[in-house]
Amino acid sequence: MNELVIILGAGESGVGAALLAKQKGFDCFVSDGGQLKNAHKAELEENGIEFEEGTHSEEKILSAALVIKSPGIPEKNELVKKIRAKGIEMISEIEWAYRYIGDSRVIAITGSNGKTTTTALTYHICKHAGLDCALVGNIGISFARQVANDPKPLYVAEISSFQLDDIVTFRPHIAILTNITEDHLDRYDYSFRNYINSKFRIALNQQSSDYFIYNADDEVTVQHIKEFPILSNPLPFSMRKELLQGAFIKEQEMTVANSDEKLQMSIYDFALKGKHNQYNTMAAGLAASVIGLRKDKIREAIQSFEALEHRMEHVATVRGIEFINDSKATNVNSTWYALESMTKPTILILGGVDKGNDYAQILDLVKEKVKAIVCMGVDNRKIHEAFQNDVSVMVNTGSAAEAVHASFQLADKGDVVLLSPACASFDLFRNYEDRGNQFKAAVREL
Predict the structure, then answer these.
(1) Minimal CA–CA distance to 111: which of 148, 170, 171, 163?
(2) Binding site membership: which residues?
(3) Are 417 and 323 in contact (CB under 8 A)?
(4) pTM recorded for the entire structure
(5) Where along this sequence does the record place binding of ATP (predicted)?
(6) How far apart are CA 160 and CA 182, in angstroms?
(7) CB of 215 within 8 A of CB of 279?
(8) Contact 282, 248 (CB under 8 A)
(9) Helix 332-340 and helix 275-290, axial crossing angle in degrees, nearest 10
(10) In whole numbers, what is the pLDDT of the chain averaged over residues?
(11) What pLDDT sits at residue 168?
């Protein structure tokens, strides 16, 4: 097979795509405009895969039969435009992996918020029930790497809108859409509509034997669902109404009804606390019931799940002040969910790279629950403008350690310090994990 497969971007998904291409006998070449991580470099060398870093050999790339593009590279990239103009097929690593899974099935989860927790919980339930499955996509290892190195009969995949943009045949047996709120608009020409279209692509190729699980309380989802020709079986979940098919919570009890069988469980038995996690638990519970897992196994797994790092993670209580790390909150809606679950006076740490945020969404919750805002970013003007009339104490800090110290000074015994930034982290940190880790380290040094 002499067809040249080019992989653009050599992060986890790019290296995974290259390993799969090599295994399937393709001539492949990896091109990254930045610098590769040493581990990725070593892996490519070890497998005899050609690569380049810090540059793109345009002529070679434009001679490809197929290009697999990293989700981080936008359509407006000049090289991407040239590839499109030449009519070369360009797909995402998710699509590439899907083409080689054979009879295996996929549970795919997307959404603006809650997708990581929902994916991890769904995987935990499947593992607990004894299924041979893998956790792939945005969480865990890349889908293509898993297919190349250790194929499984079931894949539980967290999938971003960027990955969905470049699918062609990708068809999950179960698709979950947690919710849609304004996010990443810089990648979608500042059009919310484009972003909505992207999220619904998760159900694009589904057939009548598949399932589409969605949040019936999410106004954007419900408003637009009829505009898409979804052929799969709809399974909504809600806290506002009882459903004959789907999942709902009424009087603190969750009911999951996917056939004649019903699973019922008190929300007080959920390992994950907070209203947003009740939605995530309903979605995961529905997916588990669709694939036919036993009710007792689903119940046990929901009770035993451990929360993920950087997502409403309790760090420590210091002199009666609780510190919570929600660094994964990179948009306003995530911060809304975090604040909504707060029951004590809160010192809120906000800030970072603004992705076109509308802070009005959290203003009511801030008025109700927040006694001080600690800004942690290079440019905090927009946060000051949004809250200066409603929060009497606002301070600027330029590092995680400074933010922790300032919050500790402002807090009283019985208060909570909540890092839930509503912004991307790239102004001061490598990524949200780095931000969360620096926050935790600073708390532990108090």
Answers:
(1) 163
(2) 111-117
(3) yes
(4) 0.80
(5) 111-117
(6) 14
(7) yes
(8) yes
(9) 100
(10) 93
(11) 96
Dihedral in degrees, nearest 10, Cα atoms 9, 10, 15, 18? 50
Please give the Cα distance from 353 to 331 (Å, whole number).
10
Could you tell me which residues are beta bridge partners of residue 157? 108, 136
Domains and CATH numbers, the chain: 4-87 (3.40.50.720), 97-304 (3.40.1190.10), 313-444 (3.90.190.20)
Q: Is the separation of the CB atoms in 180 and 195 below 8 Å?
A: yes
**Terminal Cα-to-Cα distance of the chain (whole angstroms):** 60
**Torsion region of 183: left, alpha or beta (phi above 0 gives left; psi -120 to 50 gives alpha):** beta
Phi then psi for residue 154, to 5 deg, are -140, 135
8 Å CB contact between 350 and 383:
yes
DSSP, collapsed to helix, strand or coil, labels residue 288 as helix
| CB 175, CB 204: distance < 8 Å | no
292-336: pLDDT as tens digits:
999 999 999 999 998 777 888 889 999 999 999 999 998 898 898
List beta partners, residue 350: 375
Smallest Cα–Cα separation from 128: which of 267, 310, 295, 308? 295
311 exposure class (CB count in 10 Å sphere: 0-12, 13-18, 19+): buried
Torsion of CA 296, 299, 301, 306, to 10 degrees: -160
Percent of the chain residues past pLDDT 70, beyond the cut: 99
Predicted pLDDT at 311: 84
Q: Is the pLDDT of residue 68 over 80?
A: yes
Residues at the binding site for ATP are 111-117
**Residue 334 CB partners (closer than 8 Å, separation 6+):** 113, 326, 328, 420, 422
Distance (Å, whole) CA 3 – CA 10: 20
Residue identified by tokens 């998760």 is 202
